[in-house]
Amino acid sequence: MEANGAVKTTGPLKGVRVLDWTMWQFGPVSTSMMGDMGAEVIKIEALDGDAGRGLMRASRSGTGLPGDRNAYFETTNRNKKGIAVNLKTQQGRDIIYKLVGSADVFVQNFRQGVAERLGVGYDTLHEINPLLVYGSASGYGPNGPDSALPSFDGCGQARGGLMISATPVGTKVPSRVSGGVSDQIGAIMLCQGVLAALVARHTQGIGQKVDTSHLSANMWLQGLGISMAMMMGVDMGAYERDNPRNALANLYMCKDERWIQLMHLQPDRYWESFMTVMGLEDLISDPRFETMDSRMNHGRELVEALDAAFLTKTFDEWDKIFRSGYDFIYAKVQGITELVDDPQVISNDYITNFDHPTIGPVQMCNHPNIYSETPSGIFREAPELGQHTEEILIDELDYSWDDINDLRDAGVIL
User: Fold this and answer.
1) Which of 63, 95, 393, 403 has the smallest count of CB within 10 Å of its CB?
2) Where residue 286 sits, what CATH number does that domain have?
3) What's the 3-state SS for the chain?
4) Residue 278 sits in which domain range?
5) Interval 334-356: pLDDT, tens
6) pLDDT of amino acid 61
7) pTM for this one?
């Protein structure tokens, strides 16, 4: 495992400067991912800070940490420096304009028109730096009648179809997936868009604006189902465990009440061996289950038989049997808190250790990609409000201490 500081000098985005004027989760996570990859990310906040700093609860969990730190903010803003600037003043905007001159990327996720009113819209910053990649995150895209509407995670899940897709058949109340997944996939797609634009800048010599929305990202997350539905005119629909299309790609509960997910997308290939291992040899030649189509037509009966069989052994017992010379495709259904003990998670450093200067040793979800020559990682905690303002103004923008005092007295910086 690489040390926390390794990515600072070896990440694949080493040498890229990102200006991050974002808040909450969608925007901040996209730039945090760039920081994971070694980019120098400077988080720009108003003098009262990112609203995410004050989030008291995430779902049913509190966010408080020692030293008045916030788990939500720490997670979404790691690997960044931080400055606090009043963009409602010309002096504050001038600071940003100077940073833009040497920046590669600028990212914002404010409502439509806010960036333009404060003088940091794409057209303005493009004039200062024509090669700038400008990332913009929104709820519903830059065009259309709802382009100016605000949006948060649940809105993205709702309008993008994810909420209905996650709702079991027969359930009247739509299900919302926890953990801000709509924001998270939006952030991933925005990061991907910015990286593509950086490649275009390198190969074609152009800067440009990249727009990503909750709506587009959640649709792309379900892109297979949406595209197939458009081509075939049939909605794939939610999974129905008790009457599945393919009983060998289904959920079953074991004796210890642990669930197992089977994923045999070529069920005929596994039919005889799997039925034999499950002790259901009598079903192999049963006319109801001879073909994929017949098994689908008799899905309930097959699930009932498999339910009864799985309840005879614990998951660990089935796991040991399945690993004994078979090539079955399955996984244990795990909760988030179990992942820290998963041997695959440990072996690949998917949850990594970070020595936080205030909180102490902590574990965090690591960057999802492994780079053989330019490792990513967590090397810097989320910044305190305005933590690096003086450092950046003096060391990088040639402001003097007298300038700092004047800016502070004028309410431009903290």
Assistant:
1) 403
2) 3.30.1540.10
3) CCCCCCHHHHCCCCCCEEEEECCCCHHHHHHHHHHHCCCEEEEEECCCCCHHHHCCEECCEECEEHHHEEHHHHHHCCCCEEEEECCCCHHHHHHHHHHHHCCCEEEECCCCCHHHHCCCCHHHHHHHCCCCEEEEEECCCCCCCCCCCCCCHHHHHHHCCHHHHCCCCCCCCCCCCCCCHHHHHHHHHHHHHHHHHHHHHHHHCCCEEEEEEHHHHHHHHCHHHHHHHHHHCCCCCCCCCCCCCCCCCCEEECCCCCEEEECCCCHHHHHHHHHHHCCCHHHCCCHHHCCHHHHHHCHHHHHHHHHHHHCCCCHHHHHHHHCCCCCCCEEECCCHHHHHHCHHHHHCCCEEEEEECCCEEEEEECCCCCCCCCCCCCCCCCCCCCCCHHHHHHHCCCCCHHHHHHHHHCCCEC
4) 251-333
5) 999 999 999 999 999 999 999 99
6) 66
7) 0.91
